[in-house]
Backbone:
């Protein structure tokens, strides 16, 4: 069990000020991967070079983008975040480049776009893979020439913007599939920073939990408490598909409902999301590097998982059927006429007989028969075909 002092210390409560965090401290973690990200950020921040941040949803891509801005010479100017996946395709050009009054129905005034608002600062294009292809051409032209037009405008506008983009997609594969422009991809990924999922950097979970707890108690002005080492270990062993974002929300829920006493493993388990599956309950495949994964492998893994689950269901169903027919039961023992020696029925014969009997008693109603047998309808249909019932 981990007994690191950071897990035992009293968390901050009302009346105490949180340490004044520097920009570099915003990316919380002690793993090698997070240390490498910090190094990349320090190297690229002082420049104007474009940066592409990739990683799953909730891994902290916007935190890294904001760090790049705040460590750059543009720190005193605007940081403008844009979620490309949240803008309807028909409004994209107006949102990004703006429009002139009267340029289309409903345009009752001039509107500045994101490029204009970010002039002199940083434009953060989140979920860049969601950008429509038609807009990718115009954004690339604006980046290459430094000029763009508002919708309905005739005068070219100039904007000095530093682009930081982020995606949870594999843009290289999107390029191959014709869903993302290759020229824009190369323009954006002058430097590529990858944020691994939280499940691949478990050692970052305790410092993240403590940081979120400090922020929670400070913002909500309620008494602080401790997360005991056993409780922290429970959190650390959990699978967090929503990554850092999901962990933050969980810590808020946990501390809201359990802040009156030290939090042990039982308290943590009461609030763990039931939709996730703990690593302690199932075997886990060793993570492969990103370049080692392909769609075919992922599909095969899913097929194998589905087959294994089906086999487990069948094993349980057969065990339930066998439990109803112990070997001593006379109705499931037959005899050879010549030897009068008992012949034990096979499990398949018992199973076939039970299914046949259930269908007979329920007038062939397969749905009710499946429910009575404790198996799924698909399994029942397959067994009916297999046993020619």
Residues:
């Amino acid at each position: 069990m981990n007994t690191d002092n950071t897990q035992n210390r009293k968390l901050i409560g009302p009346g105490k000020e949180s340490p004044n965090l520097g920009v570099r401290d915003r990316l919380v973690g002690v793993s090698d991967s997070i240390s490498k990200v910090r190094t990349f950020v320090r190297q690229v921040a002082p420049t104007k070079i474009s940066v592409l941040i990739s990683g799953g949803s909730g891994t902290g891509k916007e935190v890294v983008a904001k760090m790049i801005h705040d460590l750059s010479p543009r720190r005193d100017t605007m940081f403008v975040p844009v979620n490309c996946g949240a803008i309807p395709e028909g409004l994209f050009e107006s949102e990004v480049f703006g429009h002139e009054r009267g340029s289309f129905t409903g345009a009752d005034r001039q509107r500045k776009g994101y490029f204009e608002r970010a002039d002199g600062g940083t434009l953060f294009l989140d979920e860049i893979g969601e950008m429509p292809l038609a807009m990718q051409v115009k954004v690339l032209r604006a980046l290459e020439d430094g000029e763009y037009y508002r919708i309905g405008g005739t005068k070219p506008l100039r904007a000095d913007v530093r682009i930081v983009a982020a995606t949870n997609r594999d843009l290289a594969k999107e390029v191959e599939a014709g869903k993302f422009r290759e020229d824009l991809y190369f323009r954006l990924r002058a430097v590529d920073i990858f944020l691994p999922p939280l499940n691949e950097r478990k050692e970052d979970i305790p410092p993240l939990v403590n940081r979120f707890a400090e922020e929670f108690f400070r913002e909500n002005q309620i008494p602080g408490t401790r997360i005991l080492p056993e409780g922290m270990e429970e959190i650390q062993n959990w699978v967090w598909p929503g990554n850092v974002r999901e962990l933050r929300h969980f810590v808020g829920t946990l501390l809201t409902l359990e802040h009156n006493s030290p939090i042990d493993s039982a308290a943590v388990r009461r609030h763990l999301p039931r939709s996730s599956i703990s690593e302690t309950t199932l075997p886990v495949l060793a993570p492969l590097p990103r370049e080692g994964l392909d769609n075919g492998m992922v599909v095969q893994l899913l097929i194998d998982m589905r087959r294994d689950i089906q086999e487990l269901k069948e094993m349980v169903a057969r065990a339930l059927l066998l439990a109803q027919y112990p070997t001593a039961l006379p109705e499931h023992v037959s005899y050879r006429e010549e030897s009068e020696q008992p012949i034990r029925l096979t499990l398949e014969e018992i199973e076939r007989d039970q299914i046949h009997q259930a269908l007979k008693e329920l007038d062939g109603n397969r749905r009710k028969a499946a429910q009575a047998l404790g198996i799924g309808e698909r399994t029942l249909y397959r067994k009916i075909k297999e046993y020619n019932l």
In short: The first strand starts at residue 51 and ends at 55. The CA atoms of residues 8 and 228 lie 6 Å apart.
